[in-house]
Amino acid sequence: MNYGVQIRSTIRPPFPPLITIQDIVRLLTINRQRRPRRKCNAFKIYRTTTIFHMQINNNILPISHDYFRSITSVNWDSEAPDVKKIYRGLARDTNTYYNL
């Protein structure tokens, strides 16, 4: 198996997502004390879920932030429409929580 493919499969979060709105809020506010300035979109929630999945599985890879974003973007593009629909719903619920 190609190394890039191995990393992509390691970074892909499970479906259905094992994350709650409270987990998303906690992860979005780790580095700041206030709510997000802009609405969350489905990709941002997918990326946050990926980070959450890696943390709970103690699966932190030594990769740069840009490489992580790139891999997550490729994974997102290859997800099925029903998966993207779930993440759009999580984004909507997160925005409702923040009154955005």
Task: Write a structural description.
This protein has 100 residues and is mostly helical. It has one domain. It is 63% helix and 0% strand. It is built from five helices and no strands. The longest helix is centred in the C-terminal third of the chain and has 17 residues. The radius of gyration is 14 Å and the shape is globular.
Question: Secondary structure elements and their pairing?
Answer:
Elements (H helix, E strand, L loop, with lengths): L2 H9 L9 H8 L13 H15 L8 H14 L2 H17 L3
Helix pairs in contact: 1-4, 2-3, 3-4, 3-5
Euclidean distance between termini CA atoms: 43 Å
Tell me the fraction of residues in β-strands, as a range: under 5%
Helix percent reads 55-70%
- How many domains? The number is 1
- Sheet with most strands: none
**Alpha-beta content class:** mainly alpha
Number of strands: 0
Write down the overall mean pLDDT.
80
The tally of helices reads 5
Shape: globular
Elements, N to C (H/E): HHHHH
As residue ranges, the low-confidence spans are none
Q: Radius of gyration from the CA trace? A: 14 Å
Q: What would a concise description of this structure say?
A:
With 100 residues, the protein is mainly alpha-helical. The protein has helices at residues 3-11, 21-28, 42-56, 65-78, 81-97.
List keywords for this structure.
100 residues, mainly alpha, 0% strand, single chain
